[in-house]
Amino acid sequence: MDSIKRYMKFVFPYKWKILLTVLIGIVKFGIPLLMPLILKYVIDDIIGAEALSTSEKLTELFWLMGIAAGLFLVLRPPIEYYRQYLAQWTGNKILYDIREKLFDHIQRLSLKFYSRTKTGEIISRVINDVEQTKNFVMTGLMNIWLDMITILIAIVIMLFMDVWLTIVSIALFPLYAISVKIFYGRLRDLTRNRSQALAQVQGHLHERVQGIPVTRSFALEDYEEKEFDKHNQHFLDKAIDHTSWNAKTFAVMNTITDVAPLLVIGFAGYFAITSDLTTGTIAAFFGYMERVYGPLRRLISSSTVLVQSIASMDRVFEFMDEDYDIKDKPNAKPLKQIEGKVEFDHVSFRYEEEEEVVLNDICLDVKQGGNSSISRYEWWW
């Protein structure tokens, strides 16, 4: 959760654009929710209206289709365009800001960090992992809310049509919550392991491609092929673990999704036989079932995407938290004026705390113009 809080700092400057995107999306997804009601009206109030003549039925049908065509052909396309444009613009701008921050961080890291870190892994975090976090914006901050609002509106409309049939339709919802809790915690760990293994493959490959002339010169092709196979096999193992658990997750979720309509079919038939449930209401209900379970399936898929994006966030901020080896002291004074003179006063240096001193007690005076003097030094090589 700490990664999400930190990521939201990059999201916050664009909160109003995200809110606007969600509001436009509500209209975009709300228009198709009229389709089952139109179908119910055509079946019950036009086709089944015995008091209307054929010409009156056709007139009413043409008027209804004209209004519907105006909504779907005139109003919906520009709404769809602006929703997609705003969503993509916001997501890409957030990634731009994160990469700017990471590049500034990269330039401040010490040479010691680069001596023990593969270039390919750094590139993987800046490019691949940052790109994966975009799904958190597109899915977590936009699409999930739209799907949840769509489900809520559909359920409200269904309640007005038939309360008991609506209760049957959402009876399996608690199973979704239980399944998400069981499966997605483990999936996050597997996703993080898979991303790390992929970064290792990319890092190894980047170095070996740069060293191809050396490999060819010393005829090391067979050795390098075995080394790459080790990294590639490690990634394959992690990818298969992730795929296996992900497949189990979808198997359980889709089973629940498939059982729910069967329950509605049985109860709708029962209510139609024993009560006054109309054919139009049944048809509309099945239209809304798709409007409920379609977004619900997307929510299941979105959960997987969010888990992957959060795992990528963890890797991005892990890299961003890499400490600088050289830091100013708390009481360090700002360098306001440079005179061109450099002086080392009894300076010693070692690469690591546990290693031997390589420069011991150096006193070096470099004056402007090239004149310099060394009063005392010891070099340890």
TrEMBL record:
Boundaries of every ABC transmembrane type-1 domain copy: 19-308
Source superkingdom: Bacteria
Membrane topology qualifier: Multi-pass membrane protein
Pfam families named among the record's database cross-references: ABC_membrane (PF00664)
GO cellular component assignments: plasma membrane
Record InterPro entries: ABC1_TM_dom (IPR011527), ABC1_TM_sf (IPR036640), Type_1_exporter (IPR039421)
Single GO term (MF): ABC-type oligopeptide transporter activity
PROSITE patterns the record matches: ABC_TM1F
Compartment(s) of residence: Cell membrane
Record keywords: ATP-binding, Membrane, Nucleotide-binding, Transmembrane, Transmembrane helix
SUPFAM superfamilies tied to this protein: ABC transporter transmembrane region
TM region(s), chain numbering: 20-41, 61-79, 144-161, 167-184
PANTHER family found in the cross-reference section: ATP-BINDING CASSETTE SUB-FAMILY B MEMBER 10, MITOCHONDRIAL, ATP-DEPENDENT PERMEASE MDL1, MITOCHONDRIAL
Protein name per Swiss-Prot or TrEMBL: Lipid A export ATP-binding/permease protein MsbA
Species of origin: Gracilibacillus boraciitolerans JCM 21714
